[in-house]
């Protein structure tokens, strides 16, 4: 399955860099008919992708509340020993770890984004700037001891050496410890046409059946799978050391049965997925082209990583979108990767008054529409493109 080649999804540029061509890299996906795992094979240097990362969880009230509830779930469900270590890799600005720290746990983050990890440490969430793996795990074990809880959120799909990472997790966990991670769920990606969640940061597109098999080969067992609404559809997975004290929940077997019913273990499912993506893109382009032909002004809202895939695969550029409103101050004043659509603060809306706003951060559509009720009351309209094109 092939999506349009793009620059790295977060390769935003400043005005002075607009004259520099940005290299495009393939977005091709490959399906393993043996284990039913879907992944990309073309690798980019993770330091290129993540060292100067500009996304921070703390700018989204939706995610702050999500992580508060997440920490409470772990503490209530698995009752880690008070004062024990909670390690998160891909910890970003430490939003989740902050809630564990407030619950009385010691915390440690690992993240390759240099400035973000430094800022997190300055705020009291100690963060190692690095990429977690077996070797770094051994260093942490030697200096901090074993972890009661290890977390990884929206990062487990970004790892080339999954075997080394899982081995590092196994070596670090206490006998009663748990590894909890959230990841975009392949079942939801296919069902809801969430194709734009596929970009260069992601290498793996996870479903439960292959994960259970993979973890078992590395001395860990799945004990729970819960659906979560983030990113249009994700799963929260919990694993422990093989033979650990926590009961395996029925959700694991139920998830595998659901995936088999969806035919996620068959290549034809992904050929059909590609056809559905093309049909959705054709419908959206008809709408946008019609609006432009009628003299309407269109803006975008949100510049998450998935917007790069979306804009390239659906061939949407500054000819259709005048600018993109972005809440993250780190991105304001920059331009989108390759397409070079300007990113502006929300305050611009009051003067610019676009007729339509295409919500590229569609997973936050409800919050965005509520936040800008005055725009809507003044006659402005929103377009939500996924999982189906609709106007609000």
TrEMBL record:
Domain C-methyltransferase residue range list: 229-387
One MF term in the entry's GO annotations: methyltransferase activity
Residue intervals passing through the bilayer: none
Keyword annotations from UniProtKB, A to Z: Methyltransferase, Transferase
Methyltransferase putative zinc binding domain span: 2-50
Any Gene Ontology biological process: methylation
A Pfam entry, by short name: Methyltransf_23
Position of the signal peptide: none
Protein name: SAM-dependent methyltransferase
Species this protein is from: Paramagnetospirillum kuznetsovii
Lineage: Bacteria, Pseudomonadati, Pseudomonadota, Alphaproteobacteria, Rhodospirillales
């Amino acid at each position: 399955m092939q999506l349009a080649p793009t620059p790295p999804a977060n390769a935003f540029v400043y005005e002075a860099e607009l004259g520099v061509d940005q290299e495009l890299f393939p977005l091709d996906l490959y399906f393993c008919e043996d284990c039913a795992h879907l992944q990309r094979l073309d690798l980019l240097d993770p330091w290129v992708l993540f060292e100067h990362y500009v996304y921070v969880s703390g700018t989204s009230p939706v995610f702050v509340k999500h992580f508060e509830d997440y920490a409470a779930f772990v503490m209530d469900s698995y009752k880690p020993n008070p004062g024990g270590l909670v390690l998160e890799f891909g910890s970003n600005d430490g939003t989740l770890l902050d809630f564990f720290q407030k619950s009385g746990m010691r915390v440690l983050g690992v993240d390759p984004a240099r400035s973000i990890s430094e800022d997190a440490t300055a705020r009291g969430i100690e963060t190692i700037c690095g990429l977690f793996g077996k070797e770094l795990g051994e260093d942490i074990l030697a200096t901090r001891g074993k972890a009661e809880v290890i977390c990884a959120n929206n990062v487990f799909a970004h790892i080339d050496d999954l075997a080394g990472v899982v081995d590092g997790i196994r070596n670090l966990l206490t006998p009663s410890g748990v590894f909890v991670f959230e990841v975009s769920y392949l079942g939801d990606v296919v069902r809801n046409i969430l194709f734009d969640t596929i970009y260069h940061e992601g290498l793996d597109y996870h479903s439960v059946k292959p994960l259970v098999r993979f973890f078992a080969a590395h001395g860990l067992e799945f004990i729970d799978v819960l659906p979560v609404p983030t990113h249009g559809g994700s799963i929260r997975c919990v694993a422990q050391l093989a033979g650990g004290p926590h009961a395996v929940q029925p959700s694991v077997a139920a998830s595998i049965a659901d995936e088999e019913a969806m035919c996620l273990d068959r290549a034809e499912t992904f050929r059909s997925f590609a056809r559905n993506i093309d049909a959705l893109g054709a419908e959206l382009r008809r709408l946008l082209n019609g609006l432009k032909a009628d003299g309407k002004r269109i803006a975008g809202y949100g510049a998450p990583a998935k917007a790069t895939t979306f804009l390239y695969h659906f061939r949407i550029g500054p000819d259709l979108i005048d600018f993109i409103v972005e809440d993250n101050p780190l991105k304001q004043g920059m331009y989108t990767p390759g397409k070079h659509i300007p990113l502006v603060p929300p305050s611009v809306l009051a003067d610019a008054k676009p007729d339509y706003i295409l919500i590229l951060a569609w997973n936050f559509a409800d919050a965005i529409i509520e936040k800008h009720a005055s725009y809507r009351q003044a006659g402005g309209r929103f377009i939500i493109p996924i999982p189906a094109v609709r106007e609000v």
